[in-house]
Protein backbone atom coordinates (compact mmCIF):
# COMPACT_ATOMS: atom_id res chain seq x y z
CA UNK A 1 0.00 0.00 0.00
CA UNK A 2 1.33 3.43 -0.94
CA UNK A 3 2.05 5.62 2.05
CA UNK A 4 0.79 9.19 2.04
CA UNK A 5 2.95 10.80 4.70
CA UNK A 6 4.90 13.88 3.67
CA UNK A 7 8.57 13.02 3.16
CA UNK A 8 9.96 16.36 1.96
CA UNK A 9 8.51 19.84 2.20
CA UNK A 10 10.19 22.87 0.61
CA UNK A 11 8.72 26.10 1.99
CA UNK A 12 9.32 29.57 0.57
CA UNK A 13 12.79 28.79 -0.79
CA UNK A 14 14.76 31.72 -2.20
CA UNK A 15 18.26 31.30 -3.67
CA UNK A 16 20.45 34.14 -4.94
CA UNK A 17 23.80 34.09 -6.73
CA UNK A 18 26.44 36.80 -6.37
CA UNK A 19 27.81 37.72 -9.79
CA UNK A 20 29.95 40.51 -11.25
CA UNK A 21 26.80 41.97 -12.83
CA UNK A 22 24.84 41.88 -9.57
CA UNK A 23 22.52 39.57 -7.63
CA UNK A 24 20.95 36.81 -9.72
CA UNK A 25 17.59 35.70 -8.29
CA UNK A 26 17.58 32.04 -9.33
CA UNK A 27 14.81 30.65 -7.09
CA UNK A 28 11.97 32.79 -5.80
CA UNK A 29 9.64 31.68 -3.01
CA UNK A 30 9.42 28.07 -4.22
CA UNK A 31 7.27 25.65 -2.23
CA UNK A 32 6.55 21.99 -2.96
CA UNK A 33 5.70 18.82 -1.07
CA UNK A 34 6.73 15.23 -1.86
CA UNK A 35 5.07 12.26 -0.19
CA UNK A 36 6.65 8.92 0.66
CA UNK A 37 7.15 6.67 -2.40
CA UNK A 38 5.87 9.43 -4.71
CA UNK A 39 7.36 10.44 -8.05
CA UNK A 40 7.27 14.23 -8.38
CA UNK A 41 8.22 16.30 -11.42
CA UNK A 42 9.82 19.74 -11.51
CA UNK A 43 9.37 21.07 -15.05
CA UNK A 44 10.46 24.12 -17.00
CA UNK A 45 12.82 25.60 -19.57
CA UNK A 46 16.58 25.54 -19.08
CA UNK A 47 17.60 28.17 -16.54
CA UNK A 48 14.23 28.32 -14.77
CA UNK A 49 15.66 27.20 -11.41
CA UNK A 50 14.88 23.47 -11.40
CA UNK A 51 18.41 22.23 -10.73
CA UNK A 52 19.15 24.98 -8.22
CA UNK A 53 16.04 23.99 -6.28
CA UNK A 54 17.07 20.32 -6.35
CA UNK A 55 20.67 21.01 -5.31
CA UNK A 56 19.48 23.29 -2.51
CA UNK A 57 17.83 20.28 -0.87
CA UNK A 58 21.24 18.63 -0.46
CA UNK A 59 23.02 21.95 0.10
CA UNK A 60 25.30 21.33 -2.87
CA UNK A 61 25.21 24.86 -4.25
CA UNK A 62 28.37 26.63 -5.51
CA UNK A 63 30.21 29.10 -3.24
CA UNK A 64 28.61 32.19 -4.81
CA UNK A 65 25.09 30.93 -4.07
CA UNK A 66 23.16 31.80 -0.93
CA UNK A 67 19.88 30.45 0.40
CA UNK A 68 18.24 33.73 1.38
CA UNK A 69 15.15 32.32 3.05
CA UNK A 70 12.91 29.29 3.36
CA UNK A 71 12.83 25.89 5.00
CA UNK A 72 13.53 22.39 3.68
CA UNK A 73 11.86 19.86 5.97
CA UNK A 74 12.89 16.24 5.45
CA UNK A 75 11.48 13.60 7.80
CA UNK A 76 10.74 16.30 10.34
CA UNK A 77 14.16 18.01 10.22
CA UNK A 78 15.04 21.32 8.63
CA UNK A 79 18.02 20.44 6.42
CA UNK A 80 19.10 24.09 6.33
CA UNK A 81 19.76 23.99 10.08
CA UNK A 82 22.02 20.91 10.03
CA UNK A 83 25.77 21.35 10.42
CA UNK A 84 28.22 20.06 7.78
CA UNK A 85 28.68 16.67 9.45
CA UNK A 86 24.95 16.11 9.85
CA UNK A 87 24.11 16.99 6.23
CA UNK A 88 26.86 14.64 5.02
CA UNK A 89 25.08 11.81 6.82
CA UNK A 90 21.92 12.64 4.89
CA UNK A 91 23.61 12.84 1.48
CA UNK A 92 23.83 9.43 -0.15
CA UNK A 93 22.19 7.69 2.79
CA UNK A 94 18.71 9.19 3.03
CA UNK A 95 18.72 11.40 -0.09
CA UNK A 96 20.73 10.50 -3.20
CA UNK A 97 21.45 12.48 -6.35
CA UNK A 98 21.46 11.21 -9.92
CA UNK A 99 23.07 13.95 -12.02
CA UNK A 100 22.41 14.73 -15.68
CA UNK A 101 26.01 14.15 -16.77
CA UNK A 102 27.47 10.81 -15.61
CA UNK A 103 30.72 11.63 -17.44
CA UNK A 104 31.60 14.34 -14.92
CA UNK A 105 30.16 12.46 -11.92
CA UNK A 106 32.49 9.47 -12.20
CA UNK A 107 36.21 9.43 -11.34
CA UNK A 108 38.14 8.09 -14.38
CA UNK A 109 40.99 6.59 -12.27
CA UNK A 110 38.82 4.36 -10.07
CA UNK A 111 36.93 1.23 -11.10
CA UNK A 112 33.15 1.27 -11.09
CA UNK A 113 33.10 -1.25 -8.25
CA UNK A 114 35.38 0.92 -6.12
CA UNK A 115 33.21 3.98 -6.68
CA UNK A 116 30.04 2.18 -5.63
CA UNK A 117 31.91 0.62 -2.70
CA UNK A 118 33.01 4.07 -1.50
CA UNK A 119 29.37 5.18 -1.24
CA UNK A 120 28.63 2.07 0.83
CA UNK A 121 31.71 2.37 3.06
CA UNK A 122 30.84 5.94 4.03
CA UNK A 123 27.42 5.06 5.42
CA UNK A 124 27.50 1.39 6.40
CA UNK A 125 29.73 -0.66 8.70
CA UNK A 126 30.43 -3.62 6.45
CA UNK A 127 33.57 -5.70 5.93
CA UNK A 128 35.29 -5.59 2.53
CA UNK A 129 33.82 -8.85 1.27
CA UNK A 130 30.28 -7.70 2.05
CA UNK A 131 30.87 -4.35 0.35
CA UNK A 132 32.19 -6.00 -2.82
CA UNK A 133 29.22 -8.38 -2.84
CA UNK A 134 26.81 -5.47 -2.43
CA UNK A 135 28.54 -3.48 -5.20
CA UNK A 136 28.05 -6.39 -7.61
CA UNK A 137 24.45 -6.73 -6.47
CA UNK A 138 23.81 -3.04 -7.14
CA UNK A 139 25.25 -3.23 -10.66
CA UNK A 140 23.10 -6.29 -11.34
CA UNK A 141 19.97 -4.57 -9.98
CA UNK A 142 20.26 -1.76 -12.55
CA UNK A 143 20.73 -4.14 -15.47
CA UNK A 144 24.51 -4.00 -15.96
CA UNK A 145 25.51 -7.24 -17.77
CA UNK A 146 28.24 -9.41 -16.22
CA UNK A 147 28.44 -7.28 -13.05
CA UNK A 148 31.24 -9.45 -11.56
CA UNK A 149 33.43 -8.47 -14.52
CA UNK A 150 32.15 -4.92 -14.94
CA UNK A 151 32.93 -3.96 -11.34
CA UNK A 152 36.65 -4.09 -12.20
CA UNK A 153 36.29 -1.87 -15.28
CA UNK A 154 36.73 1.89 -15.52
CA UNK A 155 34.19 4.54 -16.60
CA UNK A 156 35.68 4.84 -20.12
CA UNK A 157 34.84 1.17 -20.67
CA UNK A 158 31.13 1.84 -20.04
CA UNK A 159 28.66 3.26 -22.57
CA UNK A 160 26.72 6.43 -21.74
CA UNK A 161 23.63 4.47 -20.72
CA UNK A 162 25.65 2.06 -18.59
CA UNK A 163 27.35 4.98 -16.84
CA UNK A 164 23.98 6.49 -15.96
CA UNK A 165 22.75 3.14 -14.65
CA UNK A 166 25.94 2.83 -12.59
CA UNK A 167 25.25 6.29 -11.12
CA UNK A 168 21.77 5.07 -10.16
CA UNK A 169 23.34 1.92 -8.64
CA UNK A 170 25.53 4.21 -6.54
CA UNK A 171 22.49 6.30 -5.56
CA UNK A 172 20.44 3.32 -4.34
CA UNK A 173 23.32 1.43 -2.69
CA UNK A 174 22.33 2.74 0.76
CA UNK A 175 18.54 2.34 0.24
CA UNK A 176 17.66 6.07 0.40
CA UNK A 177 14.16 7.41 1.00
CA UNK A 178 14.44 9.99 -1.80
CA UNK A 179 16.32 10.11 -5.10
CA UNK A 180 16.79 13.45 -6.82
CA UNK A 181 17.09 12.77 -10.55
CA UNK A 182 18.39 15.95 -12.20
CA UNK A 183 17.72 15.68 -15.95
CA UNK A 184 18.76 11.97 -15.83
CA UNK A 185 18.09 11.23 -19.52
CA UNK A 186 19.33 14.44 -21.19
CA UNK A 187 22.49 12.99 -22.75
CA UNK A 188 21.02 9.59 -23.67
CA UNK A 189 19.39 8.26 -26.83
CA UNK A 190 15.72 7.30 -26.73
CA UNK A 191 16.24 3.56 -26.21
CA UNK A 192 18.51 4.16 -23.21
CA UNK A 193 16.07 6.80 -21.93
CA UNK A 194 13.37 4.12 -21.85
CA UNK A 195 15.63 1.86 -19.78
CA UNK A 196 16.32 4.63 -17.26
CA UNK A 197 12.58 5.40 -17.02
CA UNK A 198 11.80 1.73 -16.36
CA UNK A 199 14.51 1.64 -13.71
CA UNK A 200 13.10 4.72 -11.94
CA UNK A 201 9.62 3.18 -12.10
CA UNK A 202 10.96 0.04 -10.41
CA UNK A 203 12.52 2.12 -7.64
CA UNK A 204 9.21 3.88 -7.06
CA UNK A 205 7.44 0.51 -6.72
CA UNK A 206 10.05 -0.41 -4.11
CA UNK A 207 9.01 2.58 -2.01
CA UNK A 208 11.65 5.12 -3.04
CA UNK A 209 10.40 8.66 -3.66
CA UNK A 210 11.75 10.39 -6.78
CA UNK A 211 12.12 14.11 -7.49
CA UNK A 212 12.60 14.45 -11.25
CA UNK A 213 13.79 17.72 -12.76
CA UNK A 214 13.35 17.92 -16.53
CA UNK A 215 12.19 20.03 -19.47
CA UNK A 216 10.75 16.89 -21.10
CA UNK A 217 6.99 16.85 -20.58
CA UNK A 218 6.75 13.35 -22.06
CA UNK A 219 9.13 12.04 -19.40
CA UNK A 220 6.98 13.60 -16.68
CA UNK A 221 3.81 12.08 -18.13
CA UNK A 222 5.47 8.66 -18.16
CA UNK A 223 6.98 8.73 -14.69
CA UNK A 224 5.40 11.27 -12.34
CA UNK A 225 2.20 11.50 -10.33
CA UNK A 226 2.33 15.21 -9.49
CA UNK A 227 4.39 18.12 -10.77
CA UNK A 228 5.28 21.75 -10.38
CA UNK A 229 5.91 23.98 -13.39
CA UNK A 230 8.67 26.57 -12.94
CA UNK A 231 9.27 29.78 -14.86
CA UNK A 232 11.98 32.38 -14.17
CA UNK A 233 12.62 30.94 -10.71
CA UNK A 234 8.95 30.83 -9.66
CA UNK A 235 6.53 27.90 -9.40
CA UNK A 236 3.59 28.97 -11.59
CA UNK A 237 1.45 25.82 -11.42
CA UNK A 238 1.23 22.70 -9.24
CA UNK A 239 -1.15 19.82 -9.81
CA UNK A 240 -1.42 16.13 -10.57
CA UNK A 241 -0.01 15.08 -13.93
CA UNK A 242 -3.34 14.06 -15.44
CA UNK A 243 -4.94 17.44 -14.71
CA UNK A 244 -1.99 19.39 -16.12
CA UNK A 245 -2.11 17.54 -19.44
CA UNK A 246 -5.92 17.49 -19.67
CA UNK A 247 -6.54 21.05 -18.55
CA UNK A 248 -3.41 23.21 -18.06
CA UNK A 249 -4.37 26.40 -16.22
CA UNK A 250 -1.41 28.79 -16.29
CA UNK A 251 -0.72 30.38 -19.71
CA UNK A 252 2.91 29.22 -19.56
CA UNK A 253 1.85 25.62 -18.87
CA UNK A 254 -0.59 25.85 -21.77
CA UNK A 255 2.26 27.01 -24.00
CA UNK A 256 4.46 24.12 -22.91
CA UNK A 257 1.74 21.54 -23.56
CA UNK A 258 0.79 23.11 -26.89
CA UNK A 259 4.39 23.10 -28.13
CA UNK A 260 4.67 19.29 -27.86
CA UNK A 261 4.63 17.71 -31.35
CA UNK A 262 1.81 15.17 -31.75
CA UNK A 263 1.57 12.16 -34.02
CA UNK A 264 -1.24 12.46 -36.56
CA UNK A 265 -1.61 16.23 -36.12
CA UNK A 266 -0.42 18.18 -39.16
CA UNK A 267 0.92 21.68 -38.58
CA UNK A 268 2.60 24.06 -40.97
CA UNK A 269 5.14 24.89 -38.27
CA UNK A 270 6.01 23.93 -34.70
CA UNK A 271 4.26 26.03 -32.10
CA UNK A 272 6.32 27.91 -29.57
CA UNK A 273 6.00 30.54 -26.85
CA UNK A 274 7.02 33.92 -28.29
CA UNK A 275 9.64 36.06 -26.58
CA UNK A 276 12.38 35.10 -24.13
CA UNK A 277 12.69 34.39 -20.41
CA UNK A 278 13.42 37.58 -18.40
CA UNK A 279 16.95 38.20 -17.18
CA UNK A 280 17.21 36.81 -13.61
CA UNK A 281 19.55 39.70 -12.80
CA UNK A 282 16.66 42.10 -13.39
CA UNK A 283 13.35 40.31 -12.89
CA UNK A 284 10.24 42.47 -13.18
CA UNK A 285 8.23 43.17 -10.03
CA UNK A 286 5.01 42.28 -11.85
CA UNK A 287 4.11 38.87 -13.30
CA UNK A 288 7.32 37.50 -14.83
CA UNK A 289 5.40 35.83 -17.68
CA UNK A 290 3.43 38.97 -18.62
CA UNK A 291 5.71 40.04 -21.54
CA UNK A 292 5.15 36.68 -23.27
CA UNK A 293 1.51 36.08 -22.30
CA UNK A 294 -1.19 36.38 -24.97
CA UNK A 295 -3.84 36.83 -22.27
CA UNK A 296 -2.11 39.60 -20.29
CA UNK A 297 -4.25 42.45 -18.88
CA UNK A 298 -3.49 45.56 -16.85
CA UNK A 299 -3.74 43.64 -13.58
CA UNK A 300 -0.78 41.53 -14.67
CA UNK A 301 1.43 44.62 -14.37
CA UNK A 302 0.49 45.24 -10.74
CA UNK A 303 2.54 42.57 -8.93
CA UNK A 304 3.74 38.98 -9.14
CA UNK A 305 0.72 36.77 -8.33
CA UNK A 306 0.93 34.32 -5.43
CA UNK A 307 0.60 30.57 -5.94
CA UNK A 308 -2.99 29.97 -4.80
CA UNK A 309 -5.41 27.03 -4.80
CA UNK A 310 -7.91 27.30 -7.66
CA UNK A 311 -9.74 24.05 -6.92
CA UNK A 312 -9.25 20.35 -7.55
CA UNK A 313 -5.88 20.33 -5.84
CA UNK A 314 -4.39 22.69 -8.43
CA UNK A 315 -2.43 25.79 -7.47
CA UNK A 316 -1.75 28.55 -10.00
CA UNK A 317 0.17 31.82 -9.88
CA UNK A 318 -1.94 33.85 -12.33
CA UNK A 319 -4.17 36.88 -11.64
CA UNK A 320 -6.58 35.96 -14.44
CA UNK A 321 -7.02 32.33 -13.39
CA UNK A 322 -7.53 33.32 -9.76
CA UNK A 323 -10.24 35.81 -10.75
CA UNK A 324 -11.96 33.28 -13.01
CA UNK A 325 -11.23 35.19 -16.21
CA UNK A 326 -9.09 32.47 -17.73
Descriptive key words:
about 325 residues, eight-stranded mixed sheet, Rossmann fold, 12 helices
Task: Describe what you observe in this structure.
The chain is of the alpha/beta class. The protein has a domain at 6-231: Rossmann fold (3-Layer(aba) Sandwich). The chain contains twelve helices and twelve strands. It has helices at 50-57, 84-90, 102-105, 112-123, 128-141, 147-150, 160-172, 190-205, 217-223, 241-246, 251-258, 319-322, and strands spanning 6-19, 22-35, 39-43, 65-74, 77-78, 95-98, 178-182, 209-214, 226-231, 234-240, 308-311, 314-316. An eight-stranded mixed β-sheet has the order 6-7-8-3-9-10-12-11, with helices on both faces. A four-stranded antiparallel β-sheet has the order 2-1-4-5, covered by helices on one side.
Strand content: 15-25%
The order of strands across the largest sheet is 6-7-8-3-9-10-12-11
Task: Name the CATH homologous superfamily of one domain.
Answer: P-loop containing nucleotide triphosphate hydrolases
Residue stretches low in confidence (pLDDT < 50, at least 5 long) are none
Order of helices and strands: EEEHEEHEHHHHHEHEHEEHHEEH
How confident overall, as mean pLDDT?
91
Overall geometry: globular
CATH topology of one domain: Rossmann fold
Overall CATH class of one domain = Alpha Beta
Helix count from the secondary structure assignment? 12
Spatial extent as radius of gyration = 21 Å
CA-CA gap between termini: 38 Å
Q: Tell me the number of strands.
A: 12
The largest sheet is: 8 strands, mixed
CATH architecture descriptor name of one domain: 3-Layer(aba) Sandwich
Helix content range: 25-40%
Structural class: alpha/beta
Amino acid sequence: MRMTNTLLSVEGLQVHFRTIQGVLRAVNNVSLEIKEAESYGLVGESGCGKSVTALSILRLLPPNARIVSGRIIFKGRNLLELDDQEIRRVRGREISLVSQDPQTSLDPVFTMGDQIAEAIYIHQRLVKGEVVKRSVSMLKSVGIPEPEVRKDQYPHQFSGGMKQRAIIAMAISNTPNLIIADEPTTALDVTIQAQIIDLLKTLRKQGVAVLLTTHNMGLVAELCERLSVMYAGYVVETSDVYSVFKNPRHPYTRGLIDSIPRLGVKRSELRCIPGVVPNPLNLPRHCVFQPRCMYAEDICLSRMPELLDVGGGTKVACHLVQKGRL
